[in-house]
Amino acid sequence: MGYKKGDKIATIANNRPEWNFVDMGMAQAGIVHVPIYPTISQEDYRYILNHSEVKGVIISNKNIYNKVRPIIRKSRKIRDIFSFDEVEGTRSWVEIIEAGRNHEGTYRQQVREIRSSIDPDEMVTLIYTSGTTGDPKGGYAVPPESGEQPGEHFQSAQARLPTQSPQFPSSLPCL
Predict the structure, then answer these.
(1) Quick check: 60 and 8 in contact, CB under 8 A?
(2) Cα separation of 70 and 53, whole Å?
């Protein structure tokens, strides 16, 4: 599909199992996931999609497509839009799964190499705030180091932050 480690792909979707599948797949391939809440304003979509420099967008349905289509059409960086539901003007997310199945033997070793090359300091997810005090702000999540406890992860993430300001990362439980 042409995506490589470090590229960013956004998802704009309601709560559904497919979201988890693409999240896990992106993490395995070293692609940075940019999840975007499905009910934000068109201006926030514009800001986040442009600021994050995503190369692809995965949406859940026609309603979201209608909101983001004008933004995506003007973007020079976004090259693909996929949808979980069948939506005219988008590619089906099933194409991603079929491409994986059809080329599994060809890319299996490459995916293993990418997976093993992912450093604990690398961004896995880029999450934006609601923007209640201005433009949305992006914060990133890194993978926890093997055997790390939540408090230890907080300390190691804090050491990775490129700032001296009194801002701290948020740690959400993975259940």
Answers:
(1) no
(2) 16
Q: Which domains does the chain have, with CATH numbers?
A: 8-160 (3.40.50.980)
Q: Give the pTM.
A: 0.77
In 3D space, the residue among 2, 120, 126 whose CA is nearest the CA of residue 55 turns out to be: 2
> What distance in Å separates the CA atoms of residue 132 and residue 81, rounded to the nearest whole number?
28
Q: Amino acid identity of 22? A: V
d(CA 59, CA 78): 13
- The residue ranges of the chain whose pLDDT is under 50 are 146-158, 160-163, 165-175
**Tokens describing residue 164:** 């001296």
In Å, what is the CA distance from 98 to each residue of 101, 102, 104, 109, 137?
5, 6, 10, 18, 35
Complete DSSP assignment for 76-108: SS--EEEESS--TTSEETHHHHHHHHHTHHHHH
